[in-house]
Design a protein that fits this description.
This protein is mostly beta strands. The protein has one domain. The chain has 1 helix and 6 strands; from the N terminus they run ββββαββ. It has a 3-stranded antiparallel sheet with strand order 1-5-6, with no helix packed on it. It has a 3-stranded antiparallel sheet with strand order 2-3-4. A hairpin with a 2-residue loop joins strand 2 and strand 3. The radius of gyration is 12 Å and the shape is globular. The chain starts with 12 loop residues before the first strand and ends in a 5-residue tail after the last strand.
């Protein structure tokens, strides 16, 4: 996997997906789920590790990233 293939969110952009893989590469974290492949800061690793297998939403603000676990009942 090439880090340049992973998408980097723009400020105030959000992405929701089912997180199934986390990979550290070249000082970044790549979060993958389905067709989604996001490039994120390594500082999110501990929170994302706890969310593997869950549907999440990641919002990039103008200063940092925010993560929310989505409740999938059905």
């Amino acid at each position: 996997m090439n880090i340049f293939e992973a998408y980097r969110l723009s400020p105030w952009e959000e992405c929701a997906f089912l997180l199934d893989t986390l990979i550290e590469e070249e000082g970044c974290l790549i979060a993958r789920g389905g067709r989604v492949m996001l490039r994120l800061p390594l500082t999110m690793k501990s929170d994302l590790d706890k969310s593997l297998g869950r549907r999440i939403s990641i919002l990039r603000t103008d200063t940092d990233y925010r993560m929310l676990m989505l409740n999938c009942q059905g």
